[in-house]
Amino acid sequence: MAFQNVTLVGGGVLGAQIAFQSAFKGFHVTIWLRSEGSIGRTQPKIDLIRQSYLKELAGLRANLGNPSYNYPRGIVDSMEGLDAAKIDALEKQVEEAYHSLKITLDLAEAVKDADLVIEAMAENLEQKRDIFQKMAPLLPEKTVLVTNSSTLLPSAMADATGRPEKFLALHFANEIWRFNTAEVMGQPKTDPKYYGQVVEFAKQISMIPLCLKKEQPGYILNSMLVPFLFSAESLAANDVADPETIDQTWRLATGAPSGPFRILDVVGLTTAYNIALMTPGADNPDSNAGKILAFLKKYIDAGKTGMAAGEGFYKYKK
Fold first, then answer.
1. Which residues, in sequence order, are CB contacts of 301 under 8 Å at separation 6+?
2. How many whole angstroms separate alpha carbon 291 and alpha carbon 252?
């Protein structure tokens, strides 16, 4: 079955991006949110994503004929054959995607004809299980479910879905229009048929499917990234060096364009906080994990939750 109707459960940083990219690629997309307040937080994200796509297209227009340009892989397949007329069409596609997105607070309405539901809520197992249990009696028989959880295993939620054979994980990197990876990870009860359908969907929205052979906390990317970010957080939380110096050290020593705290701003400090909560010793304020939580909480309590908020460890124009 080819998916047509896609529902996002959650409109956070990645939820909004997945929704927009799916709409950009021609899918009918609905975003379910819990409250009016959530709409107030999600709509500005969608507005910003629209501007990001248009900015990327302006960059492509300015670099026509430059085969070495670092193009956004989720927006165009290559620079070859790209011309002004095609960019005009892509700009129209962005506007169509922006205006086609539907937002609703009615869960039954959101999933009533969904071919694919993508759960993209905060990293909280009980909240994820709760929403899957609420969705279960509302879903059509055809619906396939995936979680975009960055650290939790799908097997920890599978029984709550009521359809474990149609449930697996599909994890995206931030700024998916440029960093177009899609990690696909099943759980013991996932039917290979539906695994294959999700792989095909990833390709249809211009992602590169990265297929895992078995469950792994953190998938491939976060199995490498989370320890790296945790090490940086530990240095700052223990007052070894400030975030700017830690970032500078990493950039100078490796040639990387961004340091760990710039990456954390993109990921979002709330997500980093939720991941730290799951670390052994997190309930002890004197432990390393406890110090990291206190360090992150100072920024979160001040509203400095990352790039999407306009400020995290760094300030950004909104």
1. none
2. 27
